[in-house]
Write a structure and sequence with these properties.
Layout lengths: L15 H7 L9 H9 L7 H5 L6 H5 L23 E11 L10 E10 L2 H8 L4 E3 L2 E5 L9 E5 L8 H16 L16 H4 L4 H10 L5 H15 L9 H9 E4 L31 H16 L31 H5 L11 E9 L3 H5 L1 H15 L9 H9 L17 E9 L2 E10 L3 E9 L8 H17 L7 E7 L4 H4 L7 E4 L6 E3 H10 L24 E4 L2 E4 H8 L2 H21 L1 E3 L2
Parallel strand pairs: 1-16, 10-11, 14-16
Antiparallel strand pairs: 1-2, 2-4, 3-4, 5-11, 5-12, 6-7, 7-8, 8-9, 9-10, 12-13, 14-15
Length: 598
């Protein structure tokens, strides 16, 4: 899960990183990549790029880039005024390198690209084709070759019902907040995500190199100038985000205990069950039933006449809790369990704040150091990193820097789309941070780190349940946002199998890119690490690249179709890599995203 650094410039790009990595004030000779970016800076003074971009009146051509049904979903905001173009450099296939999941030194195979900038819609479409980002590096495992196939997994929050173990974690948090009660159990079952650099272990040096090279002036800023200058020439002003929206995105808070008021529930130990089949002993009863019975008897003592209010079924004792219509036997919802009211004299106070991390909001900047210190302790204690490994630059590169452009469409969530940190504040200090991306159709979980002193609260499970609840909350305003993506599911890796416990959930078929319920996939994965989940032998990838010549290339100040670029350059050696890129990203993204070629 990834974003931008705290000392970023006005454009929201992490200018700090170059200083950290290369030394403050140091000026290096230009690399080829920097030379390209310097040339791109002249885009704002050219007309060629803006002329070649699709303009709003050409609605049919623009709509071809949208996913099927986009207009019906109410998302036609991708216009020249409102959206930035994604700019990527394809780095090709990387094989036979270290895997952070199984420890194999030569088993991992993946394809990757560096994203200078990326729209949230393009990233949504990419993760629906098996891609995932780590900072600004976006990668896709070669599923039928890599040692540990990584299947994209998503949960369906609208149908989600917490399991018994999930409820136990939520109740444990409530007991701690209400009474300061600390669980005496261990945390052996707490899921532990691999470190961010483990997920892209073989690409670590490449990511570091690219991040330094691409930091002087980002292509997204240059393209933004081009778009704005092109619109000014047409007499139009680019839309600006309202300050109100920015304030909302920085100050969204979820306060535990702010739900509907209800009576505090005292915790009692359940009675020990009778041994064996001794019928002379009473059967084991639920603590809830015992509490009701005690209250009933107490009220009967206070009111001997037996004038009790409420409904009474024939042959049953009077009830103090008349059933509500249609809700008498329904289990508590996730929100009921999370936001159960606390007593006024509660021992602790928990707040969850969502702060935009890229471009960094004022709240993100103000809490950067405190958040980093939590990350550092987490890496050292939970993952046994040496003290010099979890540096500020590593933290920024993987968990703060993000290529996603912030978007605030009128019908989107109040906080907008993009990259965020979900901070868990206990009694005024950060104890955990969930790194998330908010996309058109989902909340995508990137990473979680927490203060090891609070491991007894099972914060990995608790934060996942809060993120599922957060997705449900966003869905209330933005109906198409209805999924919770949990990254990759690796059936052969015990550390990653826990994700299958959040039901209902689906896995992405690696060949046809359709979603299949996980129950149908598990038996297949027991027999083979790599599986095609779609059992229709005739089914194909509907979003596959069909017209590669329509792919958009960004080369020497110009944006042009690959067919034109190919005729001008006559570089047959490039074609294999370009066609591979088109096949992996699909036709829609190939037509929308700009493929940077030197």
């Amino acid at each position: 899960m990834q974003r931008a650094g705290p000392n970023s410039g006005p454009g929201g790009r992490n200018t700090t990183l170059a200083k950290v990595s290369a030394g403050a004030g140091t000026r290096r000779d230009r690399s080829p990549e920097e030379a390209v970016e310097a040339r791109v800076g002249e885009l704002g003074r050219t007309r060629q790029a803006s002329v070649l971009l699709p303009s709003p009146p050409r609605a049919p051509a623009l709509r071809r880039g949208w996913p099927q049904g986009a207009e019906r979903r109410g998302r036609p905001w991708r216009t020249l005024e409102a959206a930035m173009a994604s700019v990527v450099e394809y780095k090709g296939l990387k094989a036979s390198y270290h895997c952070g999941y199984c420890g194999s030194e030569e088993g991992k195979v993946s394809c990757g690209m560096w994203a200078h900038s990326m729209t949230v819609q393009d990233y949504q479409d990419l993760i629906d084709r098996g891609w995932r980002r780590s900072g600004k590096y976006v990668y896709k495992p070669v599923m039928n070759q890599t040692c540990c196939p990584q299947y994209t997994i998503r949960c369906r929050p609208l149908q989600f019902q917490p399991s018994k173990s999930h409820k136990k974690v939520l109740k444990k948090m409530l007991k701690f907040l209400a009474k300061g009660e600390i669980s005496k159990g261990n945390c052996e079952d707490e899921p532990m995500e691999p470190t961010m650099d483990e997920s892209v272990a073989g690409d670590f040096a490449l990511i570091n190199k690219l991040d330094i090279q691409c930091d002087l002036k980002t292509l997204s800023d240059d393209l933004k100038e081009t778009f704005e200058s092109g619109e000014k020439k047409k007499g139009k002003s680019p839309k600006k985000e309202e300050p109100k929206e920015l304030i909302q995105s920085q100050h969204i808070e979820e306060k535990l205990g702010s739900g509907e008021p209800s009576h505090p529930v005292k915790v009692h130990m359940a009675p020990k069950p009778g041994k064996g089949a001794d019928l002379s002993k009473p059967p084991c009863r639920k603590a809830k039933e015992i509490r009701k019975e005690r209250k009933r008897l107490k009220l009967m003592q206070q009111n001997p006449a037996g004038e009790l209010e409420g409904f009474q079924a024939q042959g049953e004792p009077p009830s103090l809790f008349p059933p509500k219509a249609n809700k008498s036997n329904q289990p508590k919802s996730l929100e009921d369990l999370i936001f159960e009211s606390l007593p006024e004299n509660a021992s602790h106070k928990l707040e969850v704040r969502v702060v935009r991390s890229s471009p960094p909001s004022s709240q993100f900047k103000a809490t950067f150091q405190e958040s980093y210190q939590v990350y550092k302790r987490y890496q050292m204690v939970i993952h046994q990193d040496p003290p010099d490994k979890p540096t500020v630059s590593q933290f920024t590169r993987f968990l703060c820097s993000s290529p996603l452009e912030a978007e605030n469409p009128p019908h989107g969530p109040d906080c907008g789309y993009g990259s965020f940190h979900q901070q868990y504040w206990l009694d005024g200090r950060i104890i955990a941070v969930g790194v998330i991306d908010i996309l058109p159709y989902c909340v995508s979980s990137v990473y979680l780190y927490y203060d090891p002193d609070y491991s007894f609260l099972s914060l990995g499970v608790y934060s996942a349940l809060r993120e599922i609840g957060f997705t449900r909350q966003l869905h209330q305003k933005t109906s198409q946002l209805s999924y919770y993506y949990m990254g990759f599911y690796i059936h052969s890796c015990p550390k990653m199998k826990y994700k299958g416990q959040y039901r209902p959930s689906d896995l992405l078929c690696p060949e046809t890119y359709v979603w299949v319920p996980i129950e149908q996939c598990l038996s297949l994965l027991e027999n083979s690490k790599y599986c095609r989940f779609n059992q229709d032998p005739e089914a194909v990838d509907e979003g596959r690249s069909k017209e590669p010549d329509r792919l958009q290339v960004f080369h020497k100040k110009a944006i042009l179709p690959y067919g034109v670029y190919k005729r001008q350059r006559k570089a047959a050696a490039e074609e294999a890599a370009v066609l591979q890129y088109a096949r992996l990203v699909g036709q829609a993204c190939a037509e929308r995203m700009l493929l940077l070629r030197n």
